[in-house]
User: Fold this.
Amino acid sequence: MPTIREIACKAGVSHTVVSAILRGDNERVRYSEKTKRRVMRIAQQLGYRPHRSARGLAERRTFTVGICFAWAMAEVARHPAMAFVMAGVSEVLGQYDYGLLLRVNPSSEGFLPPPHLFHANEVDGVLLVGAVRHDDPSLALWRKSSLPMVLVSTPPEHLPDLNSVDLDNFGMAVQAVRYLAQQGYRRFGLVLPGLDYTCHRENLQGFEHALSELGFPFRPSWVWTVGYTADEGYEFARRFFALKNRPEALVFLAEMAAIGFARALIEHRVRVPDDLGLVVKEKFAGQMKCLPGVAALEPSYFQLGAVAAERLMGLIQKRLEPPVRERLPVPLRVEGQTQEVIRP
Assistant:
């Protein structure tokens, strides 16, 4: 790889000038715009890339972002969405020539690690990823941390000013209820993985809001938590169809459990939407292709990771002022129909 001295020789200037231009420093070393353009052109032609460690010492940055999950890595690996989140994060950090330092969460089970998992001399900022519990004690500590951070999830209600990027969990449930109401349904149930997590609590709030908005009753007994696996969704279907009094439409926001629920519907020849109105949230695109007539909410987890990384870089570079709070809309598609995707 070419050195700064080689660029300086070819450009006909001192290596001090070249170093200042490549660092963007025009206060201590003076140079003309014409010289800057010539040096940058030659550096690009020669394929020069600054050494990250040397660049970090010069600019007092590590050029590294830390990332950790609210779950053990074995759990993270089981969920396809996390791979897309990581891809989105990597895409954006690569544009800034930043590296990524992954730290394993020693606590897991939906609880984030405390800030001392990362040191300020090894990362410039941190991404905290995954559904978090509403009573997570580490969130208040991260709020006080001097390290720029973005939570890729929904903070609890008592910490509304925590930097966060997430899907629009509230609007997702509202959109699902409105869609089913437009199809003529009047009796609605909600299925969630659990209610210990902030994102699912927002789903419930959106569901209640939409029913109130449309003048439909909310029945707490028609809100179910089913867990996180396809087998649990299959078992829920057995219990659901054994009920004498049940809703005529479901907003099913437990992504992995929806796979097992769909299998049970096919086995029992339950037709969607004729026998049951159904909106599901997909963990990955095309998950519900086996069930024509189902309406699927399609979150972009790649975009979620990319936006979170972009906002963190904005905080690191001081282009953004905290708190950062962003919620990404989630489109709805009807499986088996050629109609356009319904945007929220």
Summary: DSSP finds twelve helices and twelve strands in the chain. The radius of gyration is 25 Å.
